Amino acid sequence: MTTTGKPARFEKKVCTPAELAERAKQLKGPVVFTNGVFDLLHRGHVTYLDQAAQEGQSLIVAVNSDESVKRLGKGPDRPINTQADRMSVLAALDCVALVTYFEEDTPLNAILAARPDVLVKGGDWPVEKMVGAKEVQSWGGTALSIAFEHERSTTATLEKIRKL
User: Fold this and answer.
1) What are the strands of the beta sheet with 98-102, ordered from one edge?
2) Which intervals hold domain Cytidyltransferase-like (predicted)?
3) What share of the chain is helix, strand, coil (3-state, %, to 5)?
């Protein structure tokens, strides 16, 4: 017997920027916010995301839109995975409560909409250089930089694949 599959439950964790403020208000606090490209999800990403989630009760992840990734100059073929695919993969992670995207070059508008209690970035971002850190701190929140536990990168992975 063949049946049609039910919709994936994790897709409910994906929202548009226009929905972000309202959806963020519905999350259990403290709310943690992070952002990035998350193109080819690897061990470094999932370790970092789980560690970020442990800083509160609900983790929001904002991904760079496809156009935003292109402006970062990571290469003409980036992103490898589309924005929709990157968001769905992130939403499937248990540690992630909500996923959105941002079109701008920085996630500042998403941070202002979500009003997180904790802003988190990877170890290559000192707090004083984090976009949104001052704003989050202005409403009583904190900004943290989490040291990389596993030195991995999508760029390095792609270089390795291209050499094969």
Assistant:
1) 98-102, 58-64, 31-36, 118-122, 142-146
2) 33-126
3) 40, 20, 40
